[in-house]
Design a protein that fits this description.
Blueprint (H helix, E strand, L loop, with lengths): L1 E4 L4 E6 L2 E6 L10 H15 L7 H14 L15 H21 L7 H13 L16 H4 L6
Antiparallel strand pairs: 1-2, 2-3
Helix pairs in contact: 1-2, 1-3, 2-4, 3-4
């Protein structure tokens, strides 16, 4: 294998008579830190839609943080072991990078801003089904008997 460097951003790799240009890997992001992931997602979103709503990503991250921390009105924090907030942030980061790469590659059909926004909403809120109403804390059999609490 022969490697020829073209620039800091890319390199050409020759293997078995074939050449491929490889691009630089994305920088690591601490997926336990919602702010780090939000910054990366915002950068990807604005790269795809430079005139997009700059408040969209912070707003949906706020909703997700509220759901997972117990700040969403009348619900407990999500306490699932695997389907935790880091799992959601990892999926969101992957999706943002995949969508940005798709956009940069010029793949058709192009995805509309609305479709990308719905995708980010879906990935950030995909485990909110694990939210439990606050009243379940006082009713040991609540999940087995009812999905709603009587007020």
């Amino acid at each position: 294998m022969v490697i020829a460097r073209f620039s800091f951003e890319q390199k050409c790799v020759h293997f078995r008579g074939r050449a491929a240009i490889l691009r630089k890997m994305a920088p690591p992001v601490v997926t336990r830190d919602p702010t780090s992931v939000e910054v990366e997602v915002q950068a990807a979103y604005l790269a795809m839609f430079p005139h997009g709503d700059r408040l969209f990503v912070p707003q949906v991250f706020g909703w997700a943080i509220d759901c997972f921390t117990g700040s969403y009105r009348d619900y407990q924090a999500v306490d699932a072991r695997y389907h935790d907030f880091e799992h959601t942030l990892q999926g969101t980061l992957c999706m943002a990078r995949l969508l940005r790469g798709r956009y940069q590659a010029g793949v058709h059909p192009e995805l509309s801003q609305r479709i990308v926004q719905l995708g980010f909403l879906a990935i950030l809120l995909h485990d909110t089904g694990y939210l439990k109403p606050n009243c379940w804390a006082t009713r040991a059999l609540a999940p087995a008997t009812s999905t709603r609490c009587k007020t």
